[in-house]
């Protein structure tokens, strides 16, 4: 009797990074949106700052949403970046499902952060 093959035959880092692609894109979008807003509002005047904040938010959202949508609709694109033999078929199917679900969650997170930053004043005073 032979032991079953482990789900990860080799180093699983690439497979895990692919599965976490959605949250990583969401985190990058979050950092760009709020980091840019913080830096620009602290350094520029109010009228110029609003333009640059809205431009950065629109650009980051316009880049992140199609990438996340591509991960949801065509998960095979990301799956082919994992080396052959690194993951068994069952583990690959499981990681693909996780990637799609996390990308869907991240899609709504990016949409929420992008729309909130566009609907609220760019450099409103806290006082």
Notes on the structure:
- The model has no long low-confidence stretch (mean pLDDT about 80).
- It contains five helices and no strands.
- Helix 1 (about 15-20) packs across helix 5 (about 90-120), helix 2 (about 20-45) packs antiparallel against helix 3 (about 45-75) and helix 2 (about 20-45) packs parallel to helix 5 (about 90-120).
- It is mainly α.
- The longest helix is centred in the last third of the chain and has 31 residues, at about 90-120.
- The N and C termini lie far apart (about 70 Å).
Key terms for this structure?
127 residues; 0% strand
Topology:
Elements: H1 13-19, H2 21-43, H3 46-73, H4 76-79, H5 89-119
Helix pairs in contact: 1-5, 2-3, 2-5, 3-5
How many β-strands, per DSSP?
A: 0
Sequence stretches where pLDDT stays below 50 over 5 or more residues: none
Describe the sheet with the most strands. none
What's the SSE pattern?
HHHHH
Structural class: mainly alpha
Summarize it.
The chain has five helices and no strands.
